[in-house]
Amino acid sequence: MKILGTGSALPKKVVTNDDLAQVMDTSDEWIKSRTGIEKRHIAVEETTTSMAVEAAKKAIEAAKISVLDIDLIICATVSSDYIFPTLACEVQAAVGAKRATAFDIGAGCSGFLFALATADAYFRTGRFHKALIMGAETLSKMMDWGDRSTCVLFGDGAGAAVVSAEENQLLSMVQGSDGESGMALKCDNRPVNNLYRQLGAQTYSYTEMNGSEVYKFAVRTVPTAISEALEQAKVPADDVKLYLLHQANRRIIEAVAKRLGQSLDKFPMNLQECGNISAASVPILLDKVCKDGMLQAGDKVVLAGFGAGLTWGACVLEW
Ligand code: UT7
What topology does CATH give the domain 172-318? Predict the structure, then answer.
């Protein structure tokens, strides 16, 4: 497969750490020193669908293809606007990709890697040829704004890529899941409403995270997954031009760089501007490095995601 074009969209409203410190017991110093995050975009007028559609249109334009060539749309999200129809079907309608089969996948912050792996597997059947894959999230609507240890970390946005079955840019893919540790990062679905099952008053919570558990999982799992992906691709870590990691925490990225023996300069970040946007963080960062002209033909790039599930994914691309 080959990435033909990328696009992204962020909400207009920017909320700084100082803005948050005015409405909860936190500080710019705490958030910046623990995470590297300085601000995040929060959807006020935008929705998950509107941002996904904006990112998709930009990616299709960058790919220079007809929208009718798209035969597959996969949206990775944990915060779609409807339980059904899926976000992917909403995007299909908005961009006019009438020939596409469209569905969502939920893999938390690994979502874009899982979408890429799924598109690749579909391509290998020979029945699909051009896919629009995306990560799109409005996490702000799922935060417990009374829980300062979690709500300050996340932001909203969408990133998209058009990928084609032609050529072989994807040199390797590693994915994994650890459901036994899944409750370290969770968000309840809506309360049960069933005439035949009376549960009385139900407790109902928004995003909850055991930060230190997820942190330990990330610094243990991500370097191993990346090393496996590099080994499969027969690419030495030193030969990689850029490592594009899920943007959860600067300290996690620093730990991964150290474990791989690589300079932090090879790990571009946008978490300082955007916070953690779950499935959207990797494609938004990919779009940024493409727009900034940081990738040339032949460059080796690693993408890696990790998060809710718990799940992880890493791949090596040759640009
Ligand atoms: O995308 C999914 C992946 N998610 C992640 O990768 C998140 C991974 N985890 C982390 O990034 C870190 O664990 C956090 C940034 C969430 C937390 O950092 P930490 O160094 O593990 O801090 P902590 O949770 O141990 O909290 C230390 C202190 C506590 O106070 P006491 O008990 O020591 O008095 C917290 O109450 O910091 C306090 N605290 C805060 N203080 C000011 C927690 N949140 C805040 C806050 N502002 N926002």
Answer: Peroxisomal Thiolase; Chain A, domain 1 (3.40.47)
Q: For the chain, what are the domain ranges?
A: 2-167, 172-318
Rg (CA), the chain: 19
Please indicate whether residue 154, judged by its CB atom, sits closer than 6 Å to ligand 1. no
The predicted model scores a pTM of 0.96
First to last CA, the chain: 11
Site to substitute for ligand 1 among 18, 149, 213, most atoms within 8 A of C-beta: 149
Condensed to tens digits (0 to 9), the pLDDT of residues 200-238 reads: 888 888 999 999 999 999 999 999 999 999 999 999 999
> Tens digits of per-residue pLDDT, 130-163?
999 999 999 999 999 999 999 999 999 999 999 9
Catalytic entry in 109, 151, 274, 290: 109
Amino acid identity of 25?
A: D
Burial of 7 (0-12, 13-18, 19+ CB in 10 A): buried
Torsion of CA 166, 137, 52, 302, to 10 degrees: -20
Tell me, yes or no, if 41 is annotated catalytic: no
